[in-house]
């Protein structure tokens, strides 16, 4: 790892160790990293690099990627996917050569993220299935069924976006049965999977006009965000909650609070897409109330 590049970038930006690590880690942790005596956790290192305008791959000197580096890169892709920064996601995916990934689970994780990116950027079915097929072929692989159901989720999202409700229901029903059996204390890297399933199942139920069930799933996801300190899904969850409450004709205050929360969390997570959606919904809602 090219620690010298990290230090040079910090100094170039005129940041002290205290300023850089504020809100992320202790100065002692940063100091140990810069001296080369101890690596911080992936989460901390990712945030420090982001503050410097660097990606983890910018610090990598080796031709063969380590498992630690791969995990960090995939985590960075997940975070950008959750805030709908699709150009950044595509850029990061291009930096990974899947043939260099040596563990089965991380290979499947890569194809999952590639597939979800294709779905959410409205790519044709052929590209979507090309990404999900390596996962679906691993159906009988021990302990990897989670990725299969996430691939099913991606297929469901694709079909509902193309008005193929029967095919969409087939996949969402499979995912929902699996989701309902997940342990409540799921954590770590599995948190992304839990939140992804919860959000898109909630979105599906909202599209099916089952707003109460959608709100139930949103509450589960919000609780998981709070317990895991993950904020990336909060803007979309609160926006969806506001839309559901509009359809349920709830009190103005309840609707406005959800919209304001969505806007605040969108600003916090640099989610420009949600900020624009909230602004548009607020304008139309205020006109509706005034009329």
Automatic annotation (TrEMBL):
This is XRE family transcriptional regulator. It comes from Ligilactobacillus agilis. CDD domains: HTH_XRE. One of its GO terms (molecular function) is DNA binding. Residues 10-59 form the HTH cro/C1-type domain. PROSITE patterns: HTH_CROC1 (PS50943). InterPro entries: Cro/C1-type_HTH, Lambda_DNA-bd_dom_sf, TPR-like_helical_dom_sf. Gene3D superfamilies: Tetratricopeptide repeat domain.
């Amino acid at each position: 790892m090219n620690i010298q590049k990290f230090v040079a970038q910090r100094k170039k930006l005129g940041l002290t160790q205290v300023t850089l690590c504020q809100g992320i880690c202790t100065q002692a942790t940063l100091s140990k990293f810069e001296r080369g005596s101890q690596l911080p956790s992936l989460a901390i290192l990712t945030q420090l690099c982001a503050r410097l305008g660097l990606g983890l791959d910018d610090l990598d000197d080796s031709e063969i990627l380590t498992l630690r580096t791969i995990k960090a890169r995939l985590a960075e892709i997940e975070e950008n996917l959750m805030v709908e920064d699709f150009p950044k996601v595509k850029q990061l995916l291009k930096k990974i050569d899947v043939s260099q990934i040596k563990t089965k689970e991380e290979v499947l994780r890569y194809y999952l993220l590639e597939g979800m990116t294709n779905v959410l950027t409205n790519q044709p079915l052929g590209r979507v299935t090309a990404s999900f097929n390596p996962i679906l072929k691993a159906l009988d692989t021990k302990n990897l069924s989670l990725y299969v159901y996430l691939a099913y989720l991606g297929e469901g999202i694709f079909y509902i976006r193309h008005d193929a409700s029967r095919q969409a229901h087939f996949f969402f029903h499979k995912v929902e049965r699996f989701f309902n059996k997940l342990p409540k204390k799921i954590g770590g890297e599995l948190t992304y999977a839990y939140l992804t399933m919860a959000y898109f199942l909630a979105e599906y139920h909202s599209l099916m006009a089952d707003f109460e069930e959608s709100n139930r799933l949103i509450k589960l996801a919000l609780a998981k965000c709070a317990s895991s300190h993950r904020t990336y899904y909060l803007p979309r969850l609160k926006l969806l909650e506001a839309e559901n409450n509009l359809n349920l004709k709830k009190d103005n205050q309840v609707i406005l609070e959800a919209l304001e929360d969505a806007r605040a969390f969108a600003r916090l997570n640099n989610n420009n897409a949600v900020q624009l959606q909230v602004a548009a919904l607020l304008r139309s809602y205020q006109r509706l109330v005034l009329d």
